[in-house]
C-alpha cells in the first residue's frame, strides 16, 4: 500500500512511486485492538483481512519522473482532517504545562474552532466533496467528534425529523444548535486514530455512555470499553508506537468496502503515520504529505493497493464485445503479417 496526493478538483494523480516494505502489521477485525507485530522483510504473506501496509522507505530518487497508472478499483480516496482549535491548543500555546492540567480533560472546541468548522463545512459543500464521501471516521475524543459532525454533518436539526441527530444542541459546551444526520454518510468512532495516549488529560476521552446521548447518530460499537482504559496518567505513548498504530489503522481502513472516506483525527497521529510515506517522491511532495496539519486542515490522499490483496471487483469496468464480433485491431493485424 502506498499513499499519493489527490487533487479535489481533478481525477486522481498517481505518482511514479516505488516502495520497500519495512514491517508487516498484523491486524484484527476490531480496530480497538492495538497489538502489532513487526516481522523481518522476508516471507511476507498477504490476506484480505491482514493487509501488508507497504510504505515508501527507499531513498532512491533516480526513478524517472512523471505520472503512472493504476486500476481505480485498487485505490481508496481518504480525506484526512485534523480537528479544529480546542481549548487545550490555546492554553498550550501560552504555556506548555497546560497540557498537564485536568482543566482541559477531553478538550472541546473553542468559538474560533467552530468558525473553522463552519468554513471547512462550506468548502466540502461547494466542492461537492460532501456528496462523494461514503463514511466518516472520527477519533473518539470530544474535539474530533465535534469537528466531524460540524464539517460532514447535515444542516440544523429540527424536531419531528425521523432520524437521530448527529449532535444535540449545546453538546460539549458548544453553544451550537443540533446537527442533523439527514442525508449524511454514516459516522463511526475508532480508537486506533486517537492522539498520543497518556499523561495529557486533553487526550483522555470521556466514557462512551457520556458521548452517546450527545451524539446519537454516531456508531460507537467498535469501542470495546465504556471507560478509557488505554490512557495512562504516567506513561506517554512513544512516537514509534503512534506510527505503528497508524499503520494498523490504515490496514483496517483498507478492509472497509467504502472507496471514499473522511477521517477526523489529530496532529500527532497524522504526522507520525504519514511520515512513513513519500520517501521515494520529490522532497516537496514528501513535505506536502507529511508536514504538520493546521487546525481544521483537510488533505486528500489516495491509498493504492499494489499487493494484490484486494478482492474488490471493478464496478465501472466494462468487458466489451457485447454482442460478440470481430474486432482485431489494425496494429495487431500488422504484427501478424510481419510474423
TrEMBL record:
Q: Which GO terms describe its cellular component?
A: cytoplasm
GO molecular function terms attached to this record:
phosphatase activity
Alphabetical list of CDD domains matching this protein: HP_PGM_like
Q: Which SMART domains match?
A: PGAM
Which Pfam family is one of those matched by this entry?
A: His_Phos_1
| PANTHER family named among the record's database cross-references | BROAD-SPECIFICITY PHOSPHATASE YOR283W-RELATED, HISTIDINE PHOSPHATASE FAMILY PROTEIN-RELATED
Its biological function? May play a role in carbohydrates metabolism.
Protein name per the record: Phosphoglycerate mutase-like protein 1
State the organism named in the record: Dipteronia sinensis
Amino acid at each position: 500500500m502506498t499513499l499519493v496526493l489527490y487533487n479535489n478538483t481533478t481525477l486522481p494523480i498517481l505518482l511514479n512511486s516505488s516502495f520497500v516494505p519495512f514491517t508487516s502489521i498484523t491486524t484484527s477485525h476490531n480496530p480497538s485492538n492495538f497489538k502489532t507485530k513487526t516481522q523481518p522483510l522476508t516471507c511476507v504473506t498477504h490476506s484480505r483481512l491482514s493487509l501488508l501496509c507497504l510504505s515508501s522507505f527507499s531513498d532512491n530518487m533516480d526513478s524517472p519522473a512523471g505520472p503512472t497508472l493504476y486500476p481505480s478499483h485498487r485505490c481508496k480516496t481518504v480525506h484526512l482532517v485534523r480537528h479544529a482549535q480546542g481549548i487545550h491548543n490555546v492554553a498550550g500555546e501560552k504555556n506548555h504545562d497546560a497540557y498537564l492540567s485536568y482543566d482541559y480533560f477531553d478538550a472541546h472546541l473553542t468559538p474560533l474552532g467552530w468558525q473553522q468548522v463552519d468554513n471547512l463545512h462550506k468548502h466540502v459543500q461547494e466542492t461537492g466533496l460532501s456528496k462523494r464521501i461514503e463514511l466518516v471516521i472520527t477519533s473518539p475524543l470530544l474535539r474530533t467528534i465535534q469537528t466531524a459532525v460540524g464539517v460532514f454533518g447535515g444542516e440544523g436539526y429540527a424536531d419531528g425529523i425521523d432520524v437521530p441527530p448527529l449532535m444535540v444542541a449545546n453538546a460539549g459546551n458548544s453553544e451550537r444548535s443540533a446537527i442533523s444526520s439527514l442525508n449524511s454518510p454514516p459516522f463511526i468512532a475508532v480508537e486506533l486514530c486517537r492522539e498520543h495516549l497518556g499523561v495529557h488529560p486533553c487526550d483522555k476521552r470521556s466514557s462512551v455512555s457520556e458521548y452517546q446521548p450527545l451524539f446519537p447518530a454516531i456508531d460507537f460499537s467498535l469501542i470495546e470499553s465504556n471507560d478509557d482504559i488505554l490512557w495512562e496518567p504516567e506513561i506517554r505513548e512513544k512516537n514509534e508506537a503512534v506510527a505503528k498504530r497508524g499503520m494498523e489503522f490504515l490496514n483496517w481502513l483498507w478492509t472497509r468496502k467504502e472507496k471514499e472516506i473522511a477521517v477526523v483525527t489529530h496532529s500527532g497521529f497524522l504526522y507520525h503515520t504519514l511520515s512513513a510515506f513519500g520517501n521515494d517522491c520529490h522532497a516537496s511532495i514528501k513535505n506536502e504529505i507529511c508536514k504538520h496539519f493546521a487546525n481544521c486542515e483537510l488533505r486528500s490522499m489516495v491509498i493504492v493497493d499494489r499487493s494484490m490483496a484486494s478482492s474488490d471487483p471493478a464496478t465501472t469496468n466494462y468487458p466489451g464485445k457485447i454482442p460478440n464480433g470481430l474486432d482485431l485491431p489494425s496494429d495487431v493485424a500488422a504484427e501478424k503479417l510481419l510474423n
